[in-house]
């Protein structure tokens, strides 16, 4: 009985204190067998059980190691799957060479005009109006790593999204393997004017300056064409483009336009990121068909349509456009200005010349600096956005702009010169959400409008709620 009890006690002790190595365990079992504590059958049984256990343990450890390794590889390979940028929603391929990101913008406006300047223009569709100024949706991204693309539709035309019209806003592909020499083709903004190249999501006032209100006529805008562009050195950009000469909203096709722009940021050339000192110049030349009548389009408050109309040009006309631009940004302050000259040289008749400029100053009351890259300003990013529990960013600004066609005679009811003062207050709730209030005071050199409802300008207060992604 005692012998049996001793066997059990030794077996239990052995089970809870198995040596780390199989040889030691087998040696212990042999000693117990030689002393008669274990029978041969018990020895064989325990040895087999131990070997089976060790084999199973080794298998489990190998399986765990393999599973962990594969899991880590899987996570690392897909660490960016399902996201494209901090400011967007999209997908990225496993190798990172292909991306697609949703993009869009909604600009909802309301404009209220003062009685003293223009209520008599009852035929003007832009009096006291709430409208969806812009409603765009599309995709952008890259494929095969080196090709960038963007495709955006504009839901509604210039009178707002209430229209049933939908057109293509931009559609382009850019080969960007070499940042110093990139090639782009499709429908895109032509390289002309700092203000025009700044996205409508990021312009400092609700509308662009007086001279830029006629899209594509005075300042080249979104047109179909080809472009060679690049950044040969940090602080220097260039772009040379060939376009159809008109925006795609116009069914008329002119001869080709040749457009170019160069910019420099003196601060970058000096290796400084503390400020921006931007200088740029642009040039465009091309032929337009005869019978074209240069017209200005709207005021900055979008009230008076075609307040200026020049005489029809005789025969094929060479149109030459030049622009100079400058901007300085330091901490929360930015000052920006551009000067434009547009010359029409018809095969018959007199040449026509139109000039214009604007001067803009904005200041971020909450201290944000300005986002600038490759010759263009980007979005203001609040230091303390509301979605992070902050107060957002606040900005104030003022702009003076002028349109001058003084040398061109105009018919009764039109003017050949106008100036506009715009005052702005903007609240950037987040990088993607902002609210704007603008007050615009426009003055014409002569009365504009039909008989009985002519005005010498307009005053308007405008509001915008803007969401973009």
Please tell me about this protein's structure.
With 469 residues, this protein is an alpha+beta fold. It has 2 domains: 2-77; 89-468, Porin. Helix content is 17%, strand content 44%. It is built from 6 helices and 19 strands. It has helices at 2-16, 22-34, 40-77, 115-118, 194-197, 266-269; strands at residues 89-92, 99-113, 129-143, 147-155, 166-175, 182-189, 222-233, 236-243, 257-265, 275-288, 314-330, 333-348, 352-364, 372-373, 376-377, 393-404, 417-428, 433-448, 455-468. The longest helix has 38 residues, at 40-77. The protein is elongated and about 130 Å long. The termini are far apart. 33% of the residues are buried. The model is unreliable at 1-21 and 118-126 (pLDDT under 50).
Describe the structure concisely for a colleague.
By secondary structure, the chain is an alpha+beta fold. Helices cover 17% and strands 44% of the residues. The chain has two domains: 2-77; 89-468, Porin.
Topology (elements, then pairings):
Elements: H1 2-16, H2 22-34, H3 40-77, E1 89-92, E2 99-113, H4 115-118, E3 129-143, E4 147-155, E5 166-175, E6 182-189, H5 194-197, E7 222-233, E8 236-243, E9 257-265, H6 266-269, E10 275-288, E11 314-330, E12 333-348, E13 352-364, E14 372-373, E15 376-377, E16 393-404, E17 417-428, E18 433-448, E19 455-468
Antiparallel strand pairs: 1-2, 2-3, 2-19, 3-4, 4-5, 5-6, 6-7, 7-8, 8-9, 9-10, 10-11, 11-12, 12-13, 13-16, 14-15, 16-17, 17-18, 18-19
CATH class of the largest domain: Mainly Beta
Low-pLDDT residue spans: 1-21, 118-126
* Beginning-to-end CA distance, first to last residue: 85 Å
Strand order of the largest sheet: 2-3-4-5-6-7-8-9-10-11-12-13-16-17-18-19
Q: Examine the secondary-structure arrangement and name the CATH architecture of the largest domain.
A: Beta Barrel
- Assign an overall shape: elongated
Q: How would you name the CATH homologous superfamily of the largest domain?
A: Porin
Number of strands: 19
What is the total domain count?
2
Strand content: 35-45%
């Amino acid at each position: 009985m005692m012998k049996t009890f001793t066997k059990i006690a030794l077996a239990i002790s052995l089970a809870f204190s198995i040596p780390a190595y199989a040889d030691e365990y087998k040696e212990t079992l042999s000693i117990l067998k030689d002393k008669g504590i274990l029978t041969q059958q018990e020895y064989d049984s325990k040895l087999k059980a131990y070997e089976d256990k060790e084999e199973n343990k080794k298998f489990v450890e190998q399986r765990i190691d393999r599973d962990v390794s594969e899991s880590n590889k899987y996570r690392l390979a897909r660490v960016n799957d399902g996201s494209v940028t901090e400011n967007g929603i999209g997908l990225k391929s496993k190798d990172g060479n292909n991306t697609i990101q949703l993009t869009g913008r909604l600009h909802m406006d309301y404009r209220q005009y003062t009685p003293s300047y223009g209520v008599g223009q009852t035929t003007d569709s832009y009096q006291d109006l709430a409208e969806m100024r812009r409603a765009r949706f599309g995709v952008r991204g890259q494929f095969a790593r080196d090709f960038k693309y963007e495709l955006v539709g504009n839901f509604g035309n210039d009178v707002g999204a209430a229209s049933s019209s939908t057109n293509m806003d931009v559609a382009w592909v850019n080969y960007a393997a070499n940042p110093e020499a990139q090639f782009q083709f499709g429908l895109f903004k032509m390289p002309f004017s700092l203000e025009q190249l700044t996205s409508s999501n990021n312009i400092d006032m609700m509308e662009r300056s007086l001279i830029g209100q006629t899209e594509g006529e005075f300042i080249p805008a979104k047109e179909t064409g080809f472009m060679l562009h690049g950044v040969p050195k940090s602080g220097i950009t260039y772009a040379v483009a060939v376009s159809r000469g008109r925006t795609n909203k116009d069914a008329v096709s002119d001869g080709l336009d040749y457009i170019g722009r160069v910019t420099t940021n003196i601060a970058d050339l000096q290796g400084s990121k503390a400020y921006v000192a931007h200088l740029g110049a642009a040039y465009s030349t091309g032929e337009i068909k005869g019978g074209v009548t240069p017209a200005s389009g709207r005021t900055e408050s979008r009230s008076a349509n075609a307040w200026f109309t020049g005489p029809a040009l005789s025969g094929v006309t060479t149109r030459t456009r030049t622009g100079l631009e400058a901007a300085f940004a330091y901490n929360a302050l930015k000052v920006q200005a551009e000067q434009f000259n547009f010359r029409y040289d018809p095969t018959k008749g007199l040449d026509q010349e139109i000039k214009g400029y604007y001067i803009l100053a904005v200041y971020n009351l909450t201290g944000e600096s300005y986002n600038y890259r490759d010759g263009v300003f980007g979005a203001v990013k609040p230091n303390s956005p509301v979605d992070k529990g902050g107060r957002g960013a606040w900005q104030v600004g003022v702009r003076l702009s002028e349109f001058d066609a003084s040398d061109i005679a105009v018919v009764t009811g039109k003017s050949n010169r106008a100036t506009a003062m715009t005052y702005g207050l903007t609240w950037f709730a987040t990088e993607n959400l902002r609210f704007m209030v603008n007050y615009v005071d426009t003055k014409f050199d002569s009365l504009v409008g039909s008989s009985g409802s002519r005005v010498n300008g307009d005053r308007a207060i405008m509001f915008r709620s803007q969401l973009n992604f």
